[in-house]
Structures are given as structure tokens and as C-alpha cells.
Structure prediction request, 542 residues.
Amino acid sequence: MIKLDIQERDGYLIMDDFPENCIFNKVKTGCGATTIALTNNENYIIAVPTTELVINKCYPPKDKDGKDITWKKSQIQAGVSPTNDRLFGLYDKLNRTVKAKLSKFLKQDGVKKIICTYDKVDKLIDLINPLEFKILVDEYHNLLKQYGFRTMVINQIMEKFKCFKSHCFLTATPIPERFKPDIFAEMEEYVANWKTVDKITVYPYPCKNASTTAAKIIKHYQDIGYFVLDGIKSEEAYFFVNSVREIKEILKQCKLTNDDCRIICADDELNHYKLEGFEISNSTAPAKRFTFVTCKAFEGVDYYSETAICFIVSNGYNKHTLISIDMDIPQIAGRIRTKSNPFKNKIVHIFNPKAMNYYLPFDVMKESIEDELATACRRAEQLNKETDIKILKQQDKEFERLGVHTYIIKKGDRYEVNDMVAQLKLYQHWTTNIIYRSSEALQEAYKKLGIVINQGYEWDIADEDIMKNILASPQFRDYHKRFCDLKSKEGMLSDSEEQELETISTKHPILVEGYSKLGVNTLRQLRAKKAINAALEELEER
Prediction:
């Protein structure tokens, strides 16, 4: 591991290019590293894990002057970015139309940038001269995290990245050493040496039901109009929930509508079915009071808000929602890019651990997998010596059937051991059975986070009682103040504020009577029910 002295300005990297043929740990998220490849004088293929990341870079929500840009859904498509004619965004289907656009783009003069999803890297090689392009594999830690369901795509990247002029695997949250596959363990790794340190505060909140607690937070926003953290009001919330079903459960409990929220998840038939009438949005769409985000946009995507807080929702009984402490948490912490947002580096983590009577210790699991790998090595050696075609064909069918569950893969005519599978099993066991086995275990992992990632961030783990106190049932004085505030701006209320006013009025009719008979200025001074009743009685006696 090599420390790389860097130049920085206001938390952003200043570099002409990345070191070549290596891993580059930029340490901080949101530091403008991808922008370097997008704007320098080198031809680049920038491979990213999600479609949302391609769209976010090609159709940015803000222009160079920081002004909002609103994109219609019909405008967003694969092709040249409307804000940068040197950038081509490639995702979804590589059909004739897209190929024609790409061919025209490649013929133009000047530097060329192609940002694409991981699955397009292999296909691009046939359409370009790879030796004319450098490749940047962004958020490379996903090559391990997503290996279980993107096996073929990731294998193609690992086989083809050396075809390019040079390669760089980029991330702010590298694969921890204990889970690093051999192909990355053998690479030179550069680590950005930051002089400035950002403080990130995590507010852990253990509970019995994560979705219900998230719904309770939303109702808190709805009932009194805001959420107060560290004495500062937040009027907007982002919920990072890696399960569309969990999102739907929260929407149902809070009775939210499309006007109240946007949902950023994979835009496919299954998710439309799960959401039953709720619209699927993206990061370029106008912000709403509540935004729900799946892993489609956990990383690299820029969001802007003056007052939004980021909430992470983890259900111990749904492994898809279990957020990695060392890789996912720092990524989510960097998603809000508005510098003036007082919650920019604060995260509330809502979680309910899965009750476990017994779990397999990590060292025991590791020893078992190492034994399986050793057996796979011997088996691969035997297969490479085998000359019977029938036996080899039968073995190939067996490996194809097993898919990601086999340690052996075939490259050309040779069989090799694929330790990505082994490291993925270890990583999943660590996250699911070690970190989230109890509230104490998760909070202990948070305490160690500052040791694991200690360059560029200072971690502060808040007391869980802070959240418990905030989520205590709102008092009459909270409703009273919010009622008066809303009545003071009546006629200029948004739809959600109108709904909020109606809810408070139904819950506390005495406020309606007080406003009607006493006026808002007098009512505002009377902060208790007894005082309002006394004022009304006195008025009647007159």
C-alpha cells in the first residue's frame, strides 16, 4: 500500500490523472475523483455499477453554476450527454440506434469519454480500439459485493481489463484485506493522503421493527412539520432501504402518495408490481419531502438538499437490507452534496438485529472455506491433466449448473480456482451473522470503523438515547406551535402542509376553536390546553 500525496481544494481532489495499473483508494466519497476521468485529456472508459450513476453523470441535477436542471423522463436516454459533448452514456440495451450514436461519437475529433455500466465493458471492446482508451472501474468494491448475482459480467471485467491502454480500480471504500480476492491482493494499491479530515456522526438506533420505526420518523415529520436533530430542523429525509418490499411497507404505514415522495430503484416490471401504483423515479427528478433509495443509487450519485437527513433502514430478517459498515456506510455518508446542509455528514442508522441462539464464529467459517479452496485447487489440477473429452464435458455442465456456487471456473482450455466465491461467502457471513447478530455487535463494529477507515474521516458514534428521545411522542406544545406557524401562512400552504394542518386540526380541535375566537397572535402566546380553555371561558363570560 503506497500513500499518494495529493493536491486538494475544498475537499476535492486536484489531479491530472490517476496512477496506472493499480487500485486507487481515494479515501473520501464525493471528492470529485470520477470527474477527473470525465474531464481530463485522456480517452477513458468509466465503468460504473449502476444505470443511475451513468444517468446522474450525463444528466446532472445541477449545472456548472449550481442552478437546478430539470430533466424530463423522455429526455434521458443512452447517448451523448446534453451538457458535455465529449461524454457518451451507455446503459440498458446496446441496440442498432445506440450503436449508430456511438459510431458517430467515436468518429469525432478530440478526447472521448464513455461512461457505462459494468455489463457493457465486454461489448465495448468489439466497438472501439481498447488500446486507445484507459479504463477506470469505479466503485470497484462492488465486484465482490455483487458477484453473487452478476457473476458473468464481473468475470468478463476481470478477464478483459488488461486489454486497455491502462487500468485503475477506484473506490473510497476498498475491499477489506480479510476479504480481498487474490487478483486484487496482487495489485499495487495507492491511498490518497488527505491533509484535511471530515467528521461523520452516526446515530445508531436499535429497535424491534426497522420499517415501523422509519414510518414513525416520517409521521414525526408529518405531525410537526420537521425533525429536530442536534437542535437543528430538518424538513426533508432520504431513506436508504435496499428492499422495495420494505419501502412499500413504510409507504403503506404512512399513507404516503406520489406527491409526498420519490422512489429511486430499478425501473423494472417486478418493482412496478411491488409498488402498486407508486412511480419509480431517478436522481435527476425534482426532490420531494421523502426520498427512498435502494442500492441502485447508494454510491457515486449526487443529491442536493438544504435540510435533508440520511436515514439507513436495516432489517435483520431481510439480508438484502443489511448495510456493510466498512463499505456502504461511508458511501451513503457522502451522498448529500449541498455544502450548507447542516446534516451533510450525519447518518441515522435504524436497525433491528436478528435474534440468534448460535452463530458460526468467523475463524471457524474461514478455516472451512480455506479447506474447500485447497480441495478445489487439487481438483482443478486433476482436470487440467484429464484427456477424456466426455469427462470434461460432463464436468463443464456441472460447473455451469452450479454457477456462482463453484470455486472452479474455466478460462480457455484451463481450469482455475476462483477465490471470488470464497471471499464473497466470508463477506456475507461476516455481515449477516457477525455484525448484525445483536445490537451490541453492530455498535462495536461502528466503534472499530474509525480504526478501519482512519484517513480522511473522523467517526463519532452518538448515543442511541438521542434518537429515542427525539422519537418520543410529540407533545401538545409541538402541535400548538406547528398549528400557529401553518395558520400564519394560510393561503400559501403546499399540499402536504394543507394535509398536515388538517391532521393537527382533527387531533386537537381546541386549536381550531382558539384560532377562530382568539386569533393566531393570542393563541400563539397560550401554550397549554388549560390556558386556551381559560381564555375561551373568559371570552364567553364577557
